[in-house]
Design goal:
The structure holds 3 protein chains of 3 kinds. Chain A is built from 22 helices and no strands. Chain A is mainly alpha-helical. In chain A, helix 5 packs parallel to helix 7, helix 10 packs antiparallel against helix 11 and helix 11 packs parallel to helix 15. The chains are: A mainly alpha, B mainly alpha, C alpha/beta.
């Protein structure tokens, strides 16, 4: 190491080598493949990962090194901005982000990274409120980015791109200076107590927690614990994606009817798609730790294994519901205000005409789709619980890897071809129907076997949830069948059977009963 | 009560160390006659020892007549202790002088004891006769 | 005869080739302090984890309050308070939140007692656990373990690495627990001085085998420490009858021995030595003597 700066850079690189490798791989894949949904997802993932690398609080352990605070602050912030610019350059030409100039976009991204890091460093003591502020920062930067394209165009001088670029540069310089000052003060142990924002936030958080009354039951207390550990992860990630990706895209596509419609579907798919990776972490006994053993803190509580699993499932359900609430709120703002509703209206009119000119049917279908979406999101969150809670590393890793491989294969080989291929030949379809029927019977039989020693109230509760979810999925399946059979020449009855079987197989039943036994194996080794 | 440091490494068992300490405190007047000693629980918590050790120490002191274990009230230093201690101190030289003089007559331990007991028995009988007459 | 609080019969546990516990059998009557001593890796934590149901008994039987802790976690763990060496309290929780959370599981939680302890230990209810020092975390863990007045308080090397004031708080908690009728404490520690002060019974584990398990007074009564001065210097430890361990050099040798043998000067003479000092052995010395013997 020849200088402190290179040492600091090397340290950042060393810690995030594997993530950098993943980003490189993702970007390379994205550039090689044709533009498609997969490539958009890869683009999103690469940027999320870059932001993830630079999401860390003030590096306290570096304070005792003989480097100036300026260097300690400048290296991560500028490296972050540089990394995001590099990534932007690598993706250049792949995504047309409307009429805005690439320099402006580059400037925005750099500013966003600097402000993001600065905010993350300065708001350490605010806890979860940090994310609210970070969201606000992101919104401000995007508003500045979108300002030039607000009507009426062309924008007046104060709203033009150069002006906004200057504003954004000024904002990032300010953020840098504030972060520098804050870190310097923290490094020498504080300073004169001036009224500042973080103690206020910390106090607000503390007062909130102190006014709480006692928990009603052990199950409620453990649910609170699980919720605080991992409940907000999916909603935050969904919110982040909605804010950072879908919202700007929705603005740029406001003239494109088809694109808007596809974006709407994308927004609806966001919680489901994000639930897959979050679910893999969710399956572990502790969300944030690689260790698959149940911590003694939880294992020594007077709780049965079923109670612990039930708390996790409730958290998953609440997480899924909250994420969908965010999606619906976003839609409630987007659709009336600036969405291009042509594509959506056409679709709605078609549905309306199908189902006997009934408006209620159209809204009913929308509601059922949302409910089914919540259940499918929940499904992806809890699907790995068995392998994760069992504590057997090999089992968990193979389960996760198989899911990842399946997703990648589906995307790379254009998985939509599989259903089309099946539905083309009646013989193939009937073979698949037989297989699925056998699978359904096996599912129920396994469920009965795994659930035979469970407590009755757990069984009833799970059956209720499963029943509700499957009913909504069946409704969606039948609607889909009703629409599809008009357009495609198919063996109608077999297709209906196929759809019903798929709906029945979608939600996990047996695995849920097994989860408690897996946890028991982990808790009492 | 003066601070007591119990030493587990010394050869003396902990309860004996406590007994010695309490006896010393009582003898020097740090704990007065009739004063209440700390409860078993408080003593154990203050000294950080097992309560049974304290119980054993208190029982030892009770068997020697130095304290009274009153059920429900606590442990009290015997009323007569201080007075007894002073008196005993006064009586010691008298006894010493008497035994010295008896020894100069070449009387052995057994004889001196027999003489003492005889004398005490005579006085006892006299007391009882006086009571019966009154 | 009151039912034993803990009854372990023939418990063995192996991790691969290493036997962590080897046919351990013990019974603890209620209302006593039970000290568990042994070197690192002797099996103390493994034994304690069996009592909590964190390990399933491979061979043998474990019963706490007459129940199996693995199959009846609520009935057993609801009456147990546990403090481990490094209480893995979640860093993000605040002190008040942790107590509120723990309170929900134990019906006999005493809120006033918990508040009194919080005050006594000077813990800020709004502080997050990750900002607390090691000693404060131990104190917080102690409140969480003690405030519901458990029938069985289990402390697994709680004092290691802590300053004397925190160790004092832990010992006070032990004494408070045992002075309440019928409540039991199991206390495993390296600090034999502390174990000697507060224990009624002591059990010593050495490489998974239970070497000693008896009331502390009996153990101390059975061992004596005798310092001998030999006429002739010995290069190797001399053979002294009834000795468990002989230590020293040249002419001066210290013997930890079975106290049932009375070391008269004549007996010492027969091995060519005079008795310089003869007193009861401390628990430390007894432990080292037994641990050194294979």
């Amino acid at each position: 190491m020849r200088s402190p700066t290179s040492a600091l850079l090397w340290e950042i690189w060393r810690r995030h080598r594997s993530t950098a490798a993943v980003i490189a791989a993702v970007t390379a894949t994205g550039r090689v493949l044709e533009p498609s949904a997969l490539v958009s997802m890869l683009w999103m993932v690469s940027f999320l990962l870059v932001f993830g690398i630079f999401t860390y609080p003030i590096p306290y352990r570096l304070f005792t090194l003989p480097v100036s605070t300026l260097r300690l602050v400048a290296v991560p912030l500028i490296t972050g901005a540089a990394s995001v610019e590099l990534l932007n350059v690598m993706w250049l030409g792949r995504f047309l982000t409307g009429p805005t100039s690439p320099w402006f976009v580059a400037g925005l991204l750099g500013a966003l990274m600097i402000c993001y890091q600065a905010a993350f460093w300065m708001l350490e003591r605010a806890g979860p409120l940090r994310f609210v502020v970070l969201g606000a920062v992101a919104v401000v930067v995007f508003a500045i980015g979108l300002a030039p394209s607000f009507p009426p165009t062309p924008p007046p001088p104060w709203r033009s791109e150069p002006a906004m670029a200057a504003a954004v540069t000024g904002l990032s310089a300010l953020a840098f200076l504030l972060a520098w000052r804050h870190t310097a003060r923290v490094r020498c142990g504080g300073g004169p107590a001036a009224p500042r924002i973080e103690p206020f936030l910390a106090l607000a958080g503390a007062r909130w927690s102190r006014t709480q009354r006692a928990f009603a039951s052990p199950a409620a207390a453990h649910f609170w614990f699980e919720w605080r550990c991992s409940g907000l992860v999916l909603p935050v990630v969904v919110g982040g994606v909605l804010l950072a990706v879908i919202a700007p895209q929705s603005w740029f596509m406001r003239d494109d009817a088809d694109g808007s419609f596809r974006l709407l579907l994308g927004a609806l798919a966001t919680p489901i798609v994000l639930a897959v990776p979050v679910g893999m972490a969710f399956a572990r006994p502790t969300f944030w730790s690689e260790d698959l053993s149940l911590p003694a803190f939880v294992a020594v509580r007077p709780l049965t294994d079923e109670d612990i699993v039930a708390a996790k499932m409730k958290t998953a359900a609440a997480s899924a519901a909250l994420s969908w609430l965010l999606v619906l709120s976003f839609l409630a703002v987007w659709l009336p205000l600036w969405a291009n509703l042509d594509g959506l209206s056409q679709f709605a009119i078609q549905l309306w005409s199908f189902h006997g000119q009934s408006i209620a049917a159209v809204y009913g279908i929308a509601a059922v789709v949302v409910i089914a979406g919540v259940f499918v999101t929940f499904r992806f969150l809890v699907s790995r619980l068995c392998s994760g809670l069992s504590g057997i590393r090999a089992l968990f890793v193979s389960s996760v890897t198989s899911a990842v491989i399946a997703v990648i294969a589906w995307l790379v080989f254009d998985g939509m071809r599989l259903p089309v291929w099946i539905l083309a030949e009646p013989a193939r379809m009937s073979a698949v129907v037989w297989i699925l029927s056998a699978a359904t019977i096996a599912k129920f039989w396994l469920a009965a076997w795994f659930w035979r020693r469970a407590a009755p109230q757990h069984v009833w509760r799970t059956l209720l949830v499963w029943g509700a979810g499957t009913t909504s999925l069946l409704a969606v399946a039948l609607v889909f069948w009703g629409a599809a059979r008009i357009y495609v020449a198919l063996d109608v009855l077999r297709f209906k059977a196929l759809m019903i079987l798929v709906a029945l197989l979608a939600l996990p039943l047996a695995r849920v009963g097994l989860a408690a036994r897996c946890l028991s194996r982990n808790r009492h080794r | 009560m003066a601070a007591l440091r119990l030493n587990t490494a010394s050869g003396t068992p902990l309860y004996l160390q406590l007994v010695e300490h309490l006896k010393h405190s009582i003898a020097t007047g740090a704990i007065k006659a009739g004063e209440q000693l700390p409860s078993v629980r408080k003593m154990a918590e203050d000294l950080l020892i097992n309560p049974n050790t304290v119980v054993r120490a208190y029982r030892d002191l009770e068997s020697e007549g130095i304290v009274d274990l009153r059920h429900g009230s606590g442990v009290f230093v015997g009323e007569s202790v201080a007075a007894r201690t002073d008196l005993m101190k006064k009586a010691e030289p008298i006894v010493r002088a008497a035994v010295d003089r008896l020894e100069t007559l070449n009387l052995g331990e057994e004889d001196i004891r027999r003489l003492m007991e005889n004398e005490l028995a005579v006085r006892r009988t006299a007391r009882q006769t006086r009571k019966r007459r009154a | 005869m009151r039912e034993p609080v803990v009854a372990v019969t023939g418990l063995s546990r192996a991790f691969g080739a290493m036997k962590a516990l080897n046919d351990v059998t013990l019974e603890l009557p209620p209302g006593r302090v039970f000290g568990l001593v042994g070197e690192n890796g002797a099996g103390k934590s493994t034994l304690i984890k069996h009592l909590l149901g964190l390990w399933r008994a491979e061979t043998g039987r474990v019963r706490v309050f007459g129940l199996d802790p693995v199959s009846e976690p609520i009935a057993v763990l609801g009456r147990v308070g546990y403090l481990s060496e490094q209480p893995d309290l979640p860093g993000w929780m605040r002190v008040a939140e942790l107590l509120r959370y723990t309170q929900a599981f134990y019906p006999q939680w005493d809120t006033t007692y918990a508040a009194q302890l919080l005050n006594q230990f000077s813990l800020d209810p709004d502080a997050r656990v990750k900002t607390l020092s090691k000693g404060q975390r131990a104190r917080l863990g102690l409140i969480a373990a003690e405030a519901h007045r458990p029938d069985l308080l289990i402390l697994d090397e709680p004092s290691s690495g802590l300053d004397p004031i925190v160790r004092r708080d832990i010992l006070e908690a032990i004494i408070r627990t045992v002075t309440d009728e019928g409540r039991t404490v199991i206390f495993s520690s390296h600090l034999l001085d502390e174990v000697e002060r507060v224990s009624d019974y002591v059990a010593m584990l050495h490489r998974g085998v239970l070497k000693l398990c008896a009331p502390l007074d009996d153990i101390k009564g059975q061992h004596r420490r005798i310092a001998l001065r030999f006429e002739v210097p010995h290069a190797a430890p001399p053979d002294v009858p009834g000795a468990i361990r002989v230590e020293g050099s040249g002419r001066e040798w210290t013997v930890i021995c079975d106290a049932t043998r009375i070391y008269t000067p004549a007996l010492a003479d027969s091995v060519g030595a005079t008795i310089v000092d003869d007193r009861p052995a401390s628990l430390d010395e007894i432990f080292v003597a037994h641990a050194a013997v294979n």
